[in-house]
Write a structure and sequence with these properties.
The protein is of the alpha+beta class. About 35% of the residues lie in helices and about 20% in strands. It is built from 3 helices and 5 strands; from the N terminus they run βααββββα.
Length: about 120
């Protein structure tokens, strides 16, 4: 591999991904407070955290999405998709920050239906 490519990558949530993570964390916090041992939200949040770790050690962990399929609303040239628990999807792009460090910006975390809607997939 390239020199420097093996240094850990920063992963940051922005936009909708940030909102979704905060929403999920709030739900999970409440569930833990109420003594719930396990939930769909907990499994999804754990899945997200696990995938963050995978991306930190390999920024190309996700599936690269064909340029022609990237929704204009994301305003990015390259987009990677990661499968999450229960058919949820996480989408991220890779950029270099002001200091030259590589940062993976997670821009969206969405359920299967929202993903299909956003990418224009229709049920056959």
């Amino acid at each position: 591999g390239y020199k420097g490519m093996n240094k850990p990558t920063d992963v940051m949530t922005i936009d909708n991904a940030d909102i979704e993570c905060k929403r999920l964390s709030g739900i999970v916090e409440e569930q833990i407070k109420n003594g719930k041992p396990s939930s769909e939200e907990m499994k999804l949040l754990n899945s997200i955290k696990q995938k963050f770790e995978f991306i930190k050690s390999d920024m190309f962990y996700g599936d690269c999405i064909r340029k022609s399929l990237i929704p204009k609303s994301y305003n990015v040239h390259k987009l990677w998709r990661v499968e999450l628990y229960h058919f949820w999807r996480m989408l991220y792009t890779i950029k270099t920050d002001d200091r030259g460090n590589i940062v993976c910006y997670v821009i969206d975390i969405l359920d299967h239906k929202s993903y299909d809607d956003k990418f224009g997939y229709r049920k056959k």
